[in-house]
Amino acid sequence: MEQKVGEKSEEEWKKVLTPEQYHVLRKKGTESPFSGNLYYNKEKGVYTCAACGQELFSSGTKFESGTGWPSFYDVISSDKVRLKEDTSYFMNRIEVVCSRCGSHLGHVFEDGPAPTGKRYCINSVSLNFKKEGEEGKKTEEK
Fold first, then answer.
1. What's the domain count of the chain?
2. In 3D, which of 41, 95, 93 has the Cα closest to residue 64?
């Protein structure tokens, strides 16, 4: 039986992710604000999960939030992410995880622009980017 993407062991994840990706995606860490290359990305395309490649966000929903992390007002499809209550660090937040592999992506807040009013605040290191016209090719943030 073939192993599913989200069923990798922690040792397997350590082999396929960079140390920073592992810290954020698998241990629910956070990258420093304004540090990720995709924060500044203005190209058209699709943002995918850095762990499993699932398409998550369209560049058409990306907006400048001033927070230091890539922000989106919507997901490509609601079945691409799971939302989980997060009460760590004495805060009440909603965690965003990839529905395919369970990797931590960031958090969603209710202070985004129309039409959704949501701000998906996502760690740049947890995303890869496929430039429009390069569908099918894996383009990674390095």
1. 1
2. 41
Q: Which of 52, 98, 101, 121 is catalytic?
A: 121
Is 121 part of the annotated catalytic residue set? yes
Burial state string for 30-67 with b = 16 or more CB within 10 A and e = fewer than 16:
bbeeeebebbebeeebbbbbbbbbbbbbbbebbeebee
The more confident residue out of 21 and 136 is 21
Beta strands in the chain (DSSP E): 45-49, 55-58, 62-63, 71-72, 81-86, 93-98, 104-109, 119-122, 127-131
What CATH number does residue 70 fall under?
A: 2.170.150.20
Range of the domain at 98: 33-130
For 118-128, the pLDDT digits (tens) are: 999 999 999 99
Which tokens sit at 12?
């397997």
